[in-house]
What does this fold into?
Amino acid sequence: MNIVHKAVVLVIIIMLCACAGLLLSPAERAFESGLTLFNAGKYAEAAQYFAKAVEADPKFGKAYLYLGRSYLNLGRFRDAVEPLRAAFSLEPEQSRKEIASLLLNAFLGAGKTSLSKGNYMEAVEMFREAFKLDPQFKEGRSDFVSALIAAGIQFLSREDVKSAISSFQEAIDLSPDNIEAYLGLAKAFLQSGDHAKAIESTKNALKIQPDNSSALDFLWDLLKK
It folds into this structure.
């Protein structure tokens, strides 16, 4: 092949590539740019392009998926939740198992982050979502219980006794040997005026650990009333 022929072939290739690019929709072009950055480990920049892709095409499941994955890689777990939810509803059935696993990681990560920041209600919400996806999950279960207990204490401080009782009871359902949850429930019952149930909950705590000083002191105070 002579130089002229090579030049012609090269021009044709360039034109074909240009035409291929023109055939892509704005959403697809944004996605391809994001994918290149994602594969290069530039997740923050990639997320911007994936966000543009879903803005241009709200039904673009794969762009939602990669937007969620970008946020996960950046440790922005709460931000990853909604894109992954969208991907789960839009992507084919065969992809949903993988997306569910990513979504579970997003819920757990968001829950742990919220718990560490003292945002107990939000932490509980995220852990509950994780529990719905996988009722058998072990990673994060103890954090879920801690968030429920902390939320219960917060409810009590606001005199929302009904919510406190519900929170402590949920913690006990998840962790039946948690003394702190039983004592929190006892305090909530006492604040509600149900003296008998407060005693019962304290006794349940002592069944788990008979020499627990906090439970013994609290029971002693209850019996004196």
Q: What stands out?
A: The mean pLDDT is 91. The chain is about 80% helix and 0% strand. Residues 140-225 form a domain with the Serine Threonine Protein Phosphatase 5, Tetratricopeptide repeat fold (CATH 1.25.40.10).
